[in-house]
Amino acid sequence: MQKIDDSKLKHVLMAECDYGSLFGSNIAKHAQLMKFSPQEYIVKNQVKPDYLFYLVRGKAKLYDFLANGKDTLVDFFTPPCFVGEMELMDTQSEPFSVQVIDDCYCLALPVAKYKQQLLADPVFLRNVCLYLAHKNARNIKTASQNQGFTLSQRLSAFILLTSHDGRYHEKHTQVAEYLGVSYRHLLYVIADFVKAGYLQKDQRSYRIKDEAGLQNLAWEVNLSNEWHEKASDA
Amino acid sequence: MQKIDDSKLKHVLMAECDYGSLFGSNIAKHAQLMKFSPQEYIVKNQVKPDYLFYLVRGKAKLYDFLANGKDTLVDFFTPPCFVGEMELMDTQSEPFSVQVIDDCYCLALPVAKYKQQLLADPVFLRNVCLYLAHKNARNIKTASQNQGFTLSQRLSAFILLTSHDGRYHEKHTQVAEYLGVSYRHLLYVIADFVKAGYLQKDQRSYRIKDEAGLQNLAWEVNLSNEWHEKASDA
DNA sequence: CACTAAGTATGAGAAATCTCATACTAGGAG
DNA sequence: CTCCTAGTATGAGATTTCTCATACTTAGTG
């Protein structure tokens, strides 16, 4: 972790994510810009963070470590989003680990100094509630999909979701963790996709050869989502 | 659903869960007492609730319905807890289903009338944040345990958790849903437990014969929890 | 350049879990 | 009392997913 004293950059980032509007008061100006490098922890298992972070650039992942040594990648953090808000709200709460994937820039407010103020600010509280509610809904969706669908189904949905220009190139190791299956099994299913002609491997990435085929497999998974999206359009 | 106009009962229940202290204003007095019977929905999939509920008696379950017809029992609601708070915070959000298990008594505030007021009340907002944060943490725990541990492990933890006086009697159908496995598989594992001498079936319920054996199996699962509980004691 | 860590790949065998079929039982509704 | 539903039970066979072992490749580091 590295504090960055570049007030120009700080203001650009703040403007970009409309940081000031998260609060009812002018507290935003006390935020400190920080940079975290890949592999670093923004919040570490069991260690209460000293700051309330707001991720404005980069990508991180939320882990839960189980006692049997296994870990689960629970969720991804993509900007803009809070990090460490659970611990701010509830001193009792047990921090999960948030580990950096790509360089992360965070706006950080020292908890000790501003906690009181934040907890009395309805604008801020409303934003946190909203954020928590969304996060929770997403988690529930993911978890129940992990249980209700087979890996081929979830993987095809995932490939369609994360591919650009007809190419899929995510790290298998990470994807396996996210989809909650063993690396080995993921590789099997990908091999199947290649055999079935859905994907074609070229060097470092995969090219989508039969999007319709994948759509078809992903159909039910996506249906479960659209469903809700439609509902919220109403 | 049935509105209950028994102001004595209402006040007893309010006192019991300290309802008034959830709010910064005196809004509590506008709450209406309602009763829901088993199988009824407090919040139904895709239908925005008209009230903000606070469950004070009974038991309910949170479902997510998937497009392939499968459903996942995501979480149990036990008093005291909010129901419908997601939908209050975010009009966009897609309601999940909350279905009654045992008779539920709820204190209900009409959203249309008091939404503005609630969203400006820091005391209330703080409580919702806290509630959401806890709920989220629990969901994450459950989900990652569902993935990281085998059914025997989770089931033994579950049995130890829900048994009274050395007896276990939950409905297999519900437990299967909650633990995210097929009814069939659950029965297999229970049969194994009986064979292994952990449980003994008598009529309608099971008697725990070898608690140590179960403890042993549940060991890692519980470790993952205690861990966090310890952490939050600190 | 050699060493190391992370990511990629693949095989073999085992386990966890699922689906489908089929029965039996208890309690509520008519 | 009979019908119906929900819950309980058990078998057979198929899928899904896991663990372990083993290798090869690539990028970074001293």
UniProtKB/TrEMBL annotation, chains A, B:
Which GO molecular-function terms appear in the entry?
A: DNA binding
Record-annotated Cyclic nucleotide-binding domain positions = 26-118
Q: Fetch the SUPFAM superfamilies from UniProt.
A: cAMP-binding domain-like (SSF51206), Winged helix' DNA-binding domain (SSF46785)
The family database entries (InterPro entries) matched by this protein are listed as: cNMP-bd_dom, cNMP-bd_dom_sf, HTH_CRP, RmlC-like_jellyroll, WH_DNA-bd_sf
Q: Which GO terms describe its biological process?
A: regulation of DNA-templated transcription
Q: Which UniProt keywords apply?
A: DNA-binding, Transcription, Transcription regulation
Could you name the domain of life of the organism this protein comes from?
A: Bacteria
Q: What is this protein called?
A: Transcriptional regulator
